Write the structure tokens for this entry.
Amino acid sequence: MAKLLVVGAGFAGAVHARELANAGHQVDVIDKRDHIAGNCFDYVHDCGVRIHRYGPHLFHTSNDRVVGWLSQFTGWLPYEHQVVALLDDGRKVPLPVNLDTINAVFGTRLETADDAMSYLASVALPRSPVISAEDHLYSTIGKELTDLFFRPYTKKMWQLDLSEMDAAVVRRLQIRTDRDPRYFRSDTFQALPTDGYTRAFERILDHDRISVRLTTSFSQDDMAGYDACFNSMPIDEFYEFDLGELPYRSIRFHVSHHLAATAEGLATINYTDAGPYTRETWWHALPGHRVHETSNVLRTIEEPCCYRENSLERYYPIKDRDLMYQSLYERYAARAATDDQMFFIGRCGTYQYLDMHQVINQSLVHVSKWIARS
Ligand SMILES: Cc1cc2nc3c(=O)[nH]c(=O)nc-3n(C[C@H](O)[C@H](O)[C@H](O)COP(=O)(O)OP(=O)(O)OC[C@H]3O[C@@H](n4cnc5c(N)ncnc54)[C@H](O)[C@@H]3O)c2cc1C
């Protein structure tokens, strides 16, 4: 039996901790925050509505192994997420852009996918070569849809104009020519945990061989007495930024109370204007989130910012066009690879944006290899 340290009680840390404990190891989990569940942390607010502190977390995947693993710790409420975009004139249209969005924006009456494809071809402004995100979007959907749905969002989120971003970043964006309004339509499993994410984490970490210490930041001295450490802290911070800093975008969350009678029935509304905010979430509109009947509900509005302006809350690794930060990360990772006791895991340990199902899958793969070797 090894004595192991896990840094971070988000999905990366919790999956590692549980699998290591199941394999017979003794595991201590520390987290600098005062709660478990990392960025998936949710709780029931005094007004009776469940809220996700770090923005809406919608579970979606086509990975049966991940669903099977997580289902040991939670039941599920089926939920297929839909998003609308708010236009300047107050109308709300489906996002990703689909046939109904095109009809609403252009005042057309297109009926079929063929109609939509022909229409998009007629408004497209083909460019050659296609280098920037703007080149790609203008070439496929033209200026009006690009400037309405993609340019302001990109500016707010990344502080970049589409002309400064690589085409690869937007190539995977969906433009639909049918009427399907589902946000994650290609994923076979879409649901929310019945009692919330935090309750699922409590069950994951509830094991005789796991102990959890909160409000505890990692320090190098903590390694004494441990055989190995699985670490989800930012890798550059671990090395005291000596090769340079890996930057992130962050989000400020503005929460407000509203009378239930006047609240939106839609969970997520994206803004298309040039203001600082990207979207709003009405928590009561998600299944299982109105835990107690009350007259008030909650809304969260998101405002992207630099992580340095938001108490160093690191959310989205920055992908620059020259991949400068990716190569900086690789230099840190190469150094970490020479240490057979310290393993960097999760979003900030590996400097990549990962959805929940991806971080769970990566963690299951990583930890099972370690267990097989040990
Ligand atoms: C705004 C937002 C919305 C999202 N929405 C979705 C969604 O809808 N669907 C989806 O699948 N995914 C979503 N995600 C992604 C999801 O949050 C991640 O996949 C998941 O949280 C990654 O888990 P993690 O363990 O790698 O990181 P985290 O959840 O961030 O956990 C890392 C933990 O490590 C702790 N830690 C860091 N440094 C130290 C230190 N020095 N000492 C001790 N502890 C430390 C932190 O406090 C944190 O609790 C969203 C992310 C964001 C930011």
Remarks:
- The chain has eleven helices and 17 strands.
- The first strand starts at residue 3 and ends at 7.
- Residues 133-158 form the longest helix (26 residues).
